[in-house]
Design goal:
This protein is mainly beta. Helix content is 10%, strand content 32%. Strands 1, 2, 3, 4, 5, 6, 7, 8 and 9 form a 9-stranded antiparallel beta sheet that branches.
DNA sequence: AGCAAGATCGGT
DNA sequence: CCGATCTTGCTG
């Protein structure tokens, strides 16, 4: 139904994390074309959110999160996994939505491995990119919200915020 | 320069 | 439950 435009990404991360499930993530990489429905997301809401990387200040790694909504923030963890995040909100408000799962690839590490997404996609602009973007589908699945995964270090109240969204009846990771 | 920890995954 | 694997950011 067409590529999502800039305005969509200017809302806050929690709002967008709740809208992305059901939409399609489309890739055109080196002859490999793919369309995958987003099934699971998580919101990281700015420098006040202790679970958000930006809460430790602006560093070379987190710089992309300070870009205008619609860009990608990609980083490497545990020595083996790329994490795919969609930056949200206006420039200089560091927020992002982690794509934790798409059709056929549940789990943030599996998403990037499955779609061939790596550090070369860091700072990519979903609004104009020729190799990755998001499309509206008209599908509005029922979602289940819950606490975010793997952020025990953040402490309360952040650890309990229901900012993880999964399509109801969709299998969780593993 | 050295080190601890990490928005994970797969095998036991 | 544990090991893999390596970048980042903080400490000194």
């Amino acid at each position: 139904m067409g590529r999502v435009d800039r305005d969509f990404f200017l809302a806050d991360a929690v709002t967008i994390a709740g809208l992305l499930p059901g939409m399609d993530l489309v890739t055109e990489t080196g002859g490999n074309a793919g369309r995958y429905m987003i099934t699971e997301t998580e919101a990281y809401l700015g420098d006040g959110d202790r679970a958000c990387h930006a809460s430790r200040g602006r560093t070379p790694r987190t710089e992309p999160m300070y870009m205008e909504g619609g860009h990608l923030y990609i980083y490497f963890v545990y020595g083996m996994h790329w994490m795919l995040n969609v930056v949200t909100g206006p420039a200089d408000y560091p927020q992002a939505v982690l794509i934790r799962g798409v059709s056929h690839y549940p789990g943030p590490g599996r998403v990037t491995r499955g779609l061939g997404i790596d550090g070369s996609f860091n700072r990519e602009d979903l609004v104009v990119s020729g190799r990755i973007w998001i499309e509206e589908t008209g599908y509005r699945p029922e979602l289940v919200a819950g606490p975010r995964v793997g952020i025990g270090y953040a402490g309360e109240p952040w650890i309990s915020k229901p900012w993880r969204f999964i399509i109801k009846n969709e299998k969780e990771k593993k």
